[in-house]
């Protein structure tokens, strides 16, 4: 088995690829690692694929896949994880903002300190304030919701045991939450390492403002699927029961008030509490129905009884 698989998703990074490849090879040779570099070209419109083709000539350590169109970073990482063969899998960006010099220590933390996942922490960032402040808020929310105390969820430089990347599935924009997905899959040894963050040398960032909307939505999806993915009725049923109890309680109060306390008061249907109770009961029924439908869908899912087995005698 190889020591390392280095998975690099990229989109329009033709200028940085030769320098990045040379830098990685120098680090690998200096530390005598057996390795593979997996470039995933996410539908680049420039000459990135031509550059990768040149780098791969006569070099068995370079593997590459090109997408027909741009599918996103999560799709690129998922494909890279599927074909990776190294005992330790490293992910990093192709823009030279992640330093390959960090790879040996990241691998050491996986192999010798027995971490399942090690996430990079760009403690000193070379980004504008318009990016750093939302990032701090996002990381705070991610820590609160997932229970994983990482300072930088979105750092592209991470290390994983091979079993981790083979046990999770990425889609949408889930690449930000691989540590959370690993935790929900049963890999609880998650560490962090301060890494160097370099200013972008070539090109421009490929991420727009939409990530500030998509990020929180994906975070809620990851949290829900991790806790209730195989038992959605526990979530929807609890909400439905709560709403139904609130509605029924209000109706009971209105009935008692009308029959025994304020007998000459206006009709129950003319009071605002009646409509609140009715709305709560309707919402309760809807939550129950959502839970039942989710259970039916889960019951017919091909992965409903797929569980990760660590050891067997």
Radius of gyration over C-alpha positions, nearest whole angstrom: 25 Å
H and E order:
EHEHEHEHEHEHHEHHH
Q: On the 0-100 scale, what is the average pLDDT?
A: 85
Task: Please list the strands of the largest sheet in the order they lie side by side.
Answer: 3-2-1-4-6-5-7
Tell me the fraction of residues in β-strands, as a range: 5-15%
Q: Outline the biggest β-sheet.
A: 7 strands, mixed
CATH superfamily membership of the largest domain: Spore Coat Polysaccharide Biosynthesis Protein SpsA, Chain A
**Number of self-contained structural domains:** 2
End-to-end gap:
23 Å
Shape: elongated
Number of helices: 10
Q: Would you give the CATH topology of the largest domain?
A: Spore Coat Polysaccharide Biosynthesis Protein SpsA, Chain A
The CATH class designation of the largest domain is: Alpha Beta
Structural class: alpha/beta
Number of strands: 7
CATH architecture of the largest domain: Alpha-Beta Complex
Helix content: 40-55%
Low-confidence stretches: none
């Amino acid at each position: 088995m190889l020591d390392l698989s280095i998975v690099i998703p990229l989109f329009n990074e033709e200028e940085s690829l030769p320098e990045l490849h040379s830098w990685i090879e120098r680090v690998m040779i200096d530390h005598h690692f057996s390795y593979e570099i997996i470039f995933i070209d996410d539908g680049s419109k420039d000459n990135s694929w031509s550059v990768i083709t040149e780098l791969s000539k006569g070099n068995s350590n370079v593997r590459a896949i090109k997408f027909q169109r741009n599918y996103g970073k999560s799709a690129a990482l998922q494909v890279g994880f599927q074909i990776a063969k190294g005992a330790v899998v490293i992910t990093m960006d192709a823009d030279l903002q992640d330093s390959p010099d960090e790879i040996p220590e990241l691998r050491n933390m996986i192999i010798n300190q027995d971490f399942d996942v090690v996430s990079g922490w760009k403690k000193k960032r070379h980004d504008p304030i318009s990016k750093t402040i939302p990032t701090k808020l996002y990381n705070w929310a991610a820590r609160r919701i997932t229970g994983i105390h990482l300072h930088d969820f979105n750092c592209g430089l991470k290390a994983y045991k091979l079993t981790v990347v083979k046990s999770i599935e990425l889609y949408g924009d889930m690449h930000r939450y691989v540590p959370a997905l690993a935790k929900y899959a049963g890999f609880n040894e998650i560490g962090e390492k301060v890494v160097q963050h370099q200013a972008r040398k070539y090109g421009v960032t490929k991420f727009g403002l939409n990530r500030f909307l998509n990020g929180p939505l994906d975070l809620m999806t990851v949290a829900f699927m991790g806790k209730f993915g195989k038992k959605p009725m526990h979530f929807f049923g609890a909400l439905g029961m709560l709403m139904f109890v609130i509605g029924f309680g209000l109706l009971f109060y209105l009935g008692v008030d009308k029959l025994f306390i304020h007998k000459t008061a206006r009709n129950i249907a003319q009071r605002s509490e009646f409509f609140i109770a009715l709305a709560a009961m309707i919402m309760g029924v809807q939550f129950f129905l959502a839970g039942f439908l989710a259970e039916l869908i889960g019951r017919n899912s091909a992965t409903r009884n797929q569980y990760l087995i660590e050891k067997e005698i």
